Amino acid sequence: QAQLVESGGGSVQAGGSLKLSCVASGYPWMGWFRQAPGKEREGVAAISLDGGSTVYADAVKGRFTISQDNAKNTVSLQMNSLKLEDTAMYYCAARSRFGMLWPLRASEYNYWGQGTQVTVSS
């Protein structure tokens, strides 16, 4: 059973920044998802093992950046210009199988972290 550990969540004012991190090792694809109360889980960003491919949801393009540090076995999500609507529980996810069709679809991932809360206030 894989163990993914997120960190870096917290509270920030609109326009501020936060950086989330997830400790994981060697998965072909890693993703960040979020779920707000009463809403479905949605894909935010994803990255391939070699960092050659990144995918972003339209809602975060230009504001969020996903990256990985293979030496530290860490995938990070830098979130800038945060908006009220970014408030959610954020989850790190890993896909253990090679090949990917829909990087922002939750069903493509088979391992999940416990989540870290991000709260953006006005």
Question: How would you describe this protein?
Answer:
There is one protein chain. The chain has 122 residues and is mostly beta strands. 0% of the residues lie in helices and 48% in strands. It has no helices and 11 strands. The chain has strands spanning 5-7, 10-13, 18-23, 29-35, 42-48, 54-56, 64-69, 74-79, 88-95, 111-112, 116-121. Strands 2, 4, 5, 6, 9, 10 and 11 form a 7-stranded mixed sheet that branches. It is globular, with a radius of gyration of 13 Å.
How would the blueprint of this fold be written?
Blueprint: E1 5-7, E2 10-13, E3 18-23, E4 29-35, E5 42-48, E6 54-56, E7 64-69, E8 74-79, E9 88-95, E10 111-112, E11 116-121
Parallel strand pairs: 2-11
Antiparallel strand pairs: 1-3, 3-8, 4-5, 4-9, 5-6, 7-8, 9-10, 9-11
From the structure above, extract its key features.
mainly beta, four-stranded antiparallel sheet, globular, 11 strands, 122 residues, single chain, seven-stranded mixed sheet
Produce a short descriptive summary.
This protein has 122 residues and is mainly β.
Determine Rg (CA atoms, Å): 13 Å
End-to-end C-alpha gap = 40 Å
Tell me the number of strands: 11
The largest β sheet comes out as: 7 strands, mixed
Q: Number of helical segments?
A: 0
